[in-house]
């Protein structure tokens, strides 16, 4: 597929295929998301203890009321509220003590009028009682009698049957990323296994005739593989399983074979490396040759990350990332993270509002070209007057700038720059 | 140890041990952190692929320059910058083409004046060249000659040896929580294994005669264990390993034995359950009987979470948490999370500034008692005019309120409440 609907043309520069324009990051992401298959991941059943961070694939509802009996929320005395009406310190209500109630036991007695039972927090109310007077508002007269100093209303200090979770109430919706309290709620209603979506599998195919493995000793002209490690860890953070397929030569047939074999075991393919125009063009050609629809965009008005390639091959999205580590990180945040979220079955909360963000004042002016979304790496420094964001200088080809930085802020497409002192939203790594 | 330095006395209410006052959450945390052992966790050596989120236990520095040769950052022509001085579209510099440079190979030639080599992004500069002219600013005259249309300065479009990481430069400090780019940097300098701190082990001891396992069918008066699941998952989120020790009877000797046996295998002990005064007092007594120093605080001006107990037994901090799920969650955030961070060897960034926070306008008035730090659970709703925080009503004993909520905001100790429309910072779950 050749690109339709290019939106932002920047300063007359040609894209890498010489098509004369590149599109905005928003438009590129829109094309990608529109082209993704509707298919959800396979499901798997797991114990709730292992469900943290997984995406729920079934609607969880309760087969019973929680709690299934009326419980006291305080330490005190179970009463019929009516017996306490009008009670005050000046005019206490005198009540007769019945048997104490013990935790975890069903009270044997039926409370008759004018009588109370001592009850612990969490204890079951006896029949005949509808409320609990807190210990603080009771005085002991003798071993069989107490004074109630304040009235209670019916239901006071009591959790009613089904008040926490009603029978058949939906507790966890499909698409929720499971949090600790979700696991707790399952335990509470007796659900010890959950059906979740399987983790996505993402292949990372490194290419570049200059790339050697991290454990190798590079000779002159060679460098060690950095990006496949960064990508694998970023994928792990999203909950996906990274499959590092290895380092391949920049050769049409070699890379075609690597990509085709990954189509079988991957929900997503990321090509890393290929920094030069010739290699980029070859990767674009491979994606378009596999097709259906093939390339969706090649070149985006994004810095760093401009030469990024995005496409879909059948049901599998594919990315050709620039070789610079900073560009890899930005392209991951802008394109791969939302694609992984969509494919994983996650139903997004807060309209995808970015989290893990802190505000800081920019320590120096940063300029940006209009017509380009720019991601600026910053160090966060805590000074006496609050947090400051200090731009990290250095080329995007350096991994060290990413290591020094604490996060990035974005200068949007149509903004020229940000002045020192302005507050920016820094998305932390 | 009996409590010294109580700071905030709230409305004449006695704490659970009848000592007549409770302390602020800040003061309670300060006592805990002050009493923690200086000891760091044991170390372990792991492959960098497994290091994501672990705390680095060694200072990582580079034994070599990265890159170890001058590399081009663009596709273009390697030149001696001086040869391009004064070049313009009107008056191009004519240069003679030498051999092309290939990726991953050391160029054989030494570039002489007036000559250029075609070089790909990432390619190694030949001897004699000090800069690279971008492809865009060159026109081919014939097979042996090009026109350079713009001058470059020495070093332009080149990454110098050691520019990314200098030999002996510190790349990762001790105490850093390893991020994807940190792993990438290690790979880049040939480090494939890291020494990290072992994960902390935290015992969760559930007590309560009414508590049955999640898989059991509770009879009248009994409820299923919720809190040990919530706590285990929250611990996992912090990077600690939860050890769910099981459900024990509310009996001095039983709980003493459970705690003592956990002192051997745990960096941290959490007692969950024991909602009633009698049980709380018993747990406090056990902690104080084990001692050294024993109880640090019992009762904090915090809602929910007031009856929380904190102490230290030798080198092991111990928490007695209230039984209500919402209180468990709040006490975890306020006390356990910072203690885990400190014990794990993490060096905190941004002065512990909370992250994962979004701002939203409060949808209705919320009142709070002065002299009590209150944590309000809210649902985040996206409306046309932005994000709104809707307080979740319901008793803190309900797990469902935690499941419905997206996060909490805090009404500090000395504030009476927050009015509808005010912006609050919501810490997301």
UniProtKB/TrEMBL annotation, chains A, B:
Catalysed reaction(s) here are: adenylyl-molybdopterin + molybdate = Mo-molybdopterin + AMP + H(+)
Which PANTHER family does the annotation name?
Answer: GEPHYRIN, MOLYBDOPTERIN BIOSYNTHESIS PROTEIN
**Mind telling me which InterPro entries this protein's record contains?**
MoaB/Mog-like_dom_sf, MoaB/Mog_dom, MoeA-like, MoeA_C_domain_IV, MoeA_C_domain_IV_sf, MoeA_linker/N, MoeA_linker/N_sf
Kindly state which keywords UniProt assigns to this record, in alphabetical order: Magnesium, Metal-binding, Molybdenum, Molybdenum cofactor biosynthesis, Transferase
Organism encoding this protein: Candidatus Sulfobium mesophilum
For this protein, the record's SMART domains field holds: MoCF_biosynth (SM00852)
Gene Ontology MF terms: metal ion binding; molybdopterin molybdotransferase activity
Instruction: Spell out where the chain crosses the membrane.
Output: none
Query: What's the name of the protein?
Result: Molybdopterin molybdenumtransferase
